[in-house]
Design a protein that fits this description.
single chain; 116 residues; alpha/beta; 4 strands; 19% strand
């Protein structure tokens, strides 16, 4: 089995601080709220799925494997609209309990390289 190099993830937490992207960089934007009529930060299963950075990274990886999107060697996650950025950081650092097997895959294949 070929060894896969971990993919660096840069987290953007401040509006307007998006770093330059190149052809090898995938961009994920985490939304603040789905528009369900509740305040940001209120627990909502639908919103949680849209902002689960581990699920989104796994989907990004699977899309590239299946040829549905271009390959990438880096990821920038724009979390500037997310009210609880600490949760995103904790998920990327592996400090939150795994919710699915995909979370283990993401923990092996991605790492938090920095925040802007």
């Amino acid at each position: 089995m070929a060894r896969v190099e971990p993919i660096p993830v840069t987290l953007v937490t401040e509006p307007g601080h998006l770093i330059p992207l190149d052809a090898e960089t995938a961009l994920l934007r985490l939304p603040a709220n789905s528009g369900h009529g509740h305040a940001d930060g209120v627990q909502c299963i639908a919103c949680a799925m849209r902002t689960d950075v581990r699920a989104l990274l796994f989907d990004l990886l699977e899309g590239a494997k299946q040829g549905l999107r271009p390959g990438f060697s880096k990821v920038v996650v724009d979390a500037s609209a997310v009210p609880d950025k600490a949760q995103v950081i904790a998920a990327l650092q592996g400090k939150l309990p795994a919710q699915a097997l995909r979370d283990h895959t993401v923990a092996r294949l991605f790492y938090l390289a920095g925040a802007a």
